[in-house]
Amino acid sequence: QQQVKQSPQSLIVQKGGISIINCAYENTAFDYFPWYQQFPGKGPALLIAIRPDVSEKKEGRFTISFNKSAKQFSLHIMDSQPGDSATYFCAAGSGGSARQLTFGSGTQLTVLP
Amino acid sequence: DGGITQSPKYLFRKEGQNVTLSCEQNLNHDAMYWYRQDPGQGLRLIYYSQIVNDFQKGDIAEGYSVSREKKESFPLTVTSAQKNPTAFYLCASSMDRGRETQYFGPGTRLLVL
Questions:
Q1: CA-only gyration radius of chain A, Å
Q2: To the nearest whole angstrom, how far is the Cα of B107 from the nearest Cα of chain A?
């Protein structure tokens, strides 16, 4: 019940295209859904996050879409660039003063020039 | 510069040896976390701490130990009981009380000789 399932495992997109990564969860107690971007040999960095009271959040070229009834959320990267090539992790968190996060397995995105 | 530092960047462990990974933050964050990252998998929580002198086991605490004697420091010891220690270890921190964003350090890669 604590799992967060992420797909696809890898994704190749042409420059200028749209990259879409999907995540699904089971635990209805989750109330915080961040996406992290990780470059090789580096720690993950927060990209964008959403709470379940909104269905969409956009920051620049990055958009999270959230479907509470389906318990799914997705990351859309518009106008994908070679510099976006990285591993992306979705996560879900719930309650407490030290909020714990459950991470998806990651998607390796490659944007071809 | 504010941030999280981890040392060393690479660490080699011999059979039967305990090794300690360092994590220091100057962000004045209350909560600190240790994650393990294996290829093709998401981040798995080892231990977390909400406050000095207090810490909690995460999902994969067996074979690991931690201490939190100072707010800014959260060292992780990989003991000889951890039979498969080769992984990328990430430390993170966050503010308390609903501040969900976790900031990650650059990681330590542990290899077994």
A1: 14
A2: 6
SS3 state of residue B90: strand
Q: Cα dihedral sign for A64, A70, A72, A75?
A: negative
Q: Which tokens belong to B31?
A: 């909560």
pLDDT digits (tens, 9 = 90+) for A48-76: 999 888 999 999 999 999 999 999 999 99
φ, ψ for residue B76 (rounded to 5)?
Answer: -115, 130
Rounded alpha-carbon distances, angstroms, from residue A74 to A57, A91, B31, B40? 11, 11, 28, 19
pLDDT below 70 — which residues of chain B? Answer: 1-2, 96-99
Cβ distance A43 to B104 less than 8 Å, yes or no, reads yes
Question: Please, what is the average pLDDT of chain B?
Answer: 91
**Cα separation values, B23 from A37, A93, A102, B77, B100, Å:** 21, 23, 21, 11, 19
Residue B7, both tokens: 């040392």
Pairwise CA distance, residues A16 & A5, whole Å: 27
Tell me the three state secondary structure of residue B105: coil
Q: Do A103 and B96 touch (CB under 8 A)?
A: no
